[in-house]
Amino acid sequence: MYRIYFENRQIDICDENERYIEDANAVVLHLNGDKDTELHTLITMFETSDSLRKLYVPSRNPGRLFKKMCKCFSEIDAGGGLVKNKRGDFLMIFRNGKWDLPKGKREKGEKKATAALREVREETGLKDIEAGELICVTHHCYRWKGQGELILKHTYWYSMEYTVPVELIPQTEEDITKAAWIAPSSLPQFLDNTYPSIVEVFKEARII
After folding, report:
1. Distance (Å, rounded) from C-alpha 135 to C-alpha 133?
2. For the chain, where are the alpha helices, taking DSSP H only?
3. CA–CA separation, 185 vs 187, rounded Å?
4. How many C-alpha atoms does 1 have within 13 Å on its Cβ side?
5. Please, what's the b/e burial string for 61-75 (b: 16 or more CB within 10 A of its CB; e: otherwise)?
6. Which residues make Cβ contacts (< 8 Å) with residue 153, sequence separation at least 6?
7. Who's near 82: CB < 8 A, 6+ residues apart?
8. What does pLDDT average to over the chain?
């Protein structure tokens, strides 16, 4: 399955045989084809809808359909980290009223893991960290500055470990007001005030 987030809503491109129909909160849309005009219409319809929360789009070839749909956006790559310390706590940041994970846009020519490390360091003040395995890739759609072109951000999430204690320094120029270590037992209350894509990262890492 391929998932594109629109803030707290999502389009899921899935195989025709998946049991999507059991999801009572979803609307299922069967496409007649995968022409660019049809895909643009689908995206516009979903973006402007006030009632659609989750849209399933079954396909015989979900990967092919996802790649075609991606071309309807202006695409960028980003990197982020799920950082754990020696105690087993996880690093989260507070930005624009939501708890989040440190992440940011990949620079030209920069490797994805390198971008993830740089963004974690810049947004939290951490230095002695290393990127581990790729956890997952999330896909998030938004309008540039709220009204410009439609952008699809592909964020590559890496597991990271941090061993040397240091004061966290939130990057205030990026609207980050807090950076904190969260114990696993406290995660539910923080994940109640985050984005679905962040919850997906924790799920893919088998933490929740």
Report:
1. 6
2. 36-48, 62-70, 112-124, 187-191, 196-204
3. 6
4. 17
5. ebeebbebbeebbee
6. 75, 76, 77, 78, 105, 139, 140, 141, 142
7. 90, 91, 101, 135, 157, 158, 159, 160, 201, 202, 205, 207
8. 92
pLDDT of amino acid 22: 64
Mean pLDDT, rounded, for 2-12: 94
Q: Assess whether pLDDT exceeds 70 at residue 71.
A: yes
| Gap between the terminal Cα atoms of the chain | 20
Residue type, 172: T
Structure tokens at 128: 């002695």
Joined together, the tokens standing for residue 34 give 């995968």
Contacts with 146 (C-beta within 8 Å, 6 or more apart), sequence order = none
- CB-neighbour burial class of residue 5 (10 A; exposed 0-12, middle 13-18, buried 19+): buried
CA distance 205 to 148: 33
- Strand ranges for the chain from DSSP E: 2-6, 9-15, 27-28, 54-59, 74-84, 90-95, 98-100, 103-105, 129-143, 150-162, 176-182
Supply the pTM of this predicted model.
0.93
